[in-house]
Design brief:
Blueprint: H1 2-33, H2 52-98, H3 112-129, E1 148-150, E2 155-156, E3 167-168, H4 173-190, E4 209-217, E5 221-229, E6 236-244, E7 263-269, H5 273-291, E8 294-301, H6 306-320, E9 325-330, H7 336-346, E10 353-356, E11 361-363, H8 365-373, E12 380-389, H9 392-395, H10 405-408, E13 416-418, E14 426-429, H11 430-436, H12 449-458, E15 463-474, H13 487-501, H14 504-511, H15 513-529
Parallel strand pairs: 7-8, 7-10, 8-9, 12-15
Antiparallel strand pairs: 1-2, 1-4, 2-3, 4-5, 5-6, 10-14, 11-15, 12-13
Helix pairs in contact: 5-6
InterPro entries: Chond_GalNAc, CS_glycosyltransferase, Nucleotide-diphossugar_trans
Enzyme class: transferase
Catalytic activity: 3-O-(beta-D-GlcA-(1->3)-beta-D-Gal-(1->3)-beta-D-Gal-(1->4)-beta-D-Xyl)-L-seryl-[protein] + UDP-N-acetyl-alpha-D-galactosamine = 3-O-(beta-D-GalNAc-(1->4)-beta-D-GlcA-(1->3)-beta-D-Gal-(1->3)-beta-D-Gal-(1->4)-beta-D-Xyl)-L-seryl-[protein] + UDP + H(+)
């Protein structure tokens, strides 16, 4: 009885303890599960905060805001990943287009049908890549490939080439044959029966051709758009043709050893001892010290300044321990062709590379290697296009002083131009020069002999390598056009003199010098008044 009474008295206390324990556990649970913000921990509503309901609503609202921000962040990351994936996919497609392994472009003669199908698939892919059906986005205005236009008689061209004519009858056989072929194909396509119309078809001829435009994308092909007269007035027919370029094919893989390939530099000279001194400084540094596989032949005309020239040559020989030189003296009027011809034939050693050079030329050791690599006996001769220097006193007239020669030798449109009309500097094996017949010795004085030799090589079976080179410079010097030159030679000399002075813009500044100075003077007065 006593036990039951004690239990009854203890029961309320036990219930109270259980209630306190449950409340404590609830509080701990709430504290543990309350979400944390970015900068602070959210707590339960306190005594002095709004009502409990409003407190929980505030907590839930902030939690919802956090979830919303997190979702926005995830969406942004997903968007960035998609953009990056798309970019990588496009890069992969470009690489596949550039190297279409999937097309398996191989000239497998054992499976001609497969090879033909693969090649056809590749050519079709070239059409898809070119701007035939639609344009492509370009980064700058310089990225656009311009068209050139043509008619039956003329081609209107931006790249004027050696002729320098903005319009011309195509003189290059490959261009002429190309355009004739395209017009004939277009006419043939127009005259094919369509199988639908029963009316008598109009028969097109080349005389119906109005005009065409074409352009070449180097890695894709050439696009042609040709316009013909239609059946009635103001009606035209347009034909679009595309000549796709085929896949790159390996033709040759060879090792070339130039360790023992000697170059004989032949320089014809009359007077000009100071220029020869400058030439020998360049020859010593680039030819003797850096290259070392070189011989120098100087063919001197007359006796004036001859001893000074021989002294310069002998001093270089002693100081550089250089014995590979020949000095030939001719008692006759200067003739560049005669000097080069005599120098070439004087050589008695094994077959050698001849570099026909002038005293106002600057070359690098890299150029000498180009000379070797682009010549091959019985196969190739080298006609480099050198960079011709403008008059330094005009180019650097606004400077305190003219820079040193080495600092002047930079390839920019303000400092010079590619001398693509000059054919005097050339490399060839002596055997090829002798077999072609050498120079025309009837040509006297300045100019003409180099073009004549160049044409001989063009008319032969030898391959003529014609390309601009970065290591060959024509140094500026005042040009004298003598009265005894023939009218044609004098004209060529004067044209060369005009082009040698400065760029079109620089010459324009000289022509309008007074007008520019007047303008600057007015501006100066105006600024003083204000």
């Amino acid at each position: 009885m006593m036990v039951r009474r004690g239990f009854i008295l203890f029961l309320p206390r036990l219930v109270g303890l259980l209630v306190v324990a449950c409340c404590s556990m609830s509080i701990v649970y709430m504290l543990a599960c309350t979400p944390k913000g970015d900068n602070q921990q959210l707590s339960l509503p306190r005594v002095h905060s709004p009502t409990v309901k409003e407190g929980y609503e505030a907590i839930l609202q902030e939690r919802e805001e956090q979830h919303r921000n997190y979702v926005i962040s995830l969406k942004k990351q997903i968007s960035q990943l998609k953009a990056e994936l798309q970019g990588r996919t496009e890069q992969l497609k470009d690489m596949q287009n550039q190297y279409p392994d999937s097309l398996d472009i191989q000239l497998d003669h054992s499976k001609p049908e497969k090879a033909q199908a693969n090649l056809l698939a590749f050519l079709r892919s070239q059409v898809d890549k070119a701007e035939v059906h639609s344009g492509v986005k370009l980064s700058t205005e310089y990225a656009a490939v311009p068209f050139e236009s043509f008619t039956l008689q003329k081609v209107y061209q931006l790249e004027t080439g050696l002729t320098r004519h903005p319009e011309e009858k195509p003189v290059r056989k490959d261009k002429r044959d190309e355009l004739i072929e395209v017009i004939e194909l277009a006419v043939g396509s127009l005259n094919k029966p369509d199988g639908v119309s029963k009316a008598k078809p109009h028969v097109y001829t080349a005389s119906d051709f109005v005009e065409g435009i074409y352009r070449t994308e180097k890695n894709k092909g050439t696009l042609y758009e040709l316009t013909f007269k239609g059946d009635v007035k103001h009606q035209f027919k347009k034909i679009v043709l595309f000549r796709p370029f085929g896949p790159v094919m390996k033709v040759k893989n060879e090792n070339i050893n130039m360790a023992d390939t000697l170059i004989n530099v032949i320089v014809p000279l009359a007077k000009r001892a100071s220029k020869f001194r400058q030439f020998m400084q360049n020859f010593r540094e680039m030819g003797i010290q850096q290259d070392g596989r070189i011989h120098l032949t100087v063919v001197y005309f007359g006796k004036e300044q001859m001893n000074e020239v021989k002294s310069i040559l002998e001093n270089t020989s002693k100081s550089a321990n250089f014995k590979n030189f020949t000095f030939i003296q001719l008692n006759e009027e200067f003739s560049r062709g005669k000097g080069l011809d005599v120098g070439a034939r004087f050589w008695k050693g094994n077959n050698v590379v001849l570099f026909f050079c002038d005293v106002d030329i600057y070359f690098t050791a890299e150029f000498l290697n180009s000379c070797r690599l682009n010549t091959q006996p019985g196969k190739k001769v080298f006609y480099p296009v050198l960079f011709s220097q403008y008059n330094p006193s005009i180019i650097y007239g606004h400077h305190d002083s003219i820079p040193s020669l080495e600092q002047q030798l930079i390839i920019k449109k303000e400092t010079g131009f590619w001398r693509d009309f000059g054919f005097g500097m050339t490399c060839q094996y002596r055997s090829d020069f002798i077999n072609i017949g050498g120079f025309d010795l009837d040509i006297k004085g300045w100019g003409g002999e180099d073009v004549h030799l160049y044409r001989k090589y063009l008319h032969s079976n030898l391959m003529v390598i014609r390309t601009p080179v970065r290591g060959l410079f024509h140094l500026w010097h005042e040009k004298q056009c003598l009265d005894e030159l023939t009218p044609e030679q004098y004209k060529m000399c004067m044209q060369s003199k005009a082009m040698n002075e400065a760029s079109h813009g620089q010459l324009g500044m000289l022509v309008f010098k007074e007008e520019i100075e007047t303008h600057l003077h007015r501006q100066k007065l105006s600024s003083k008044k204000t």
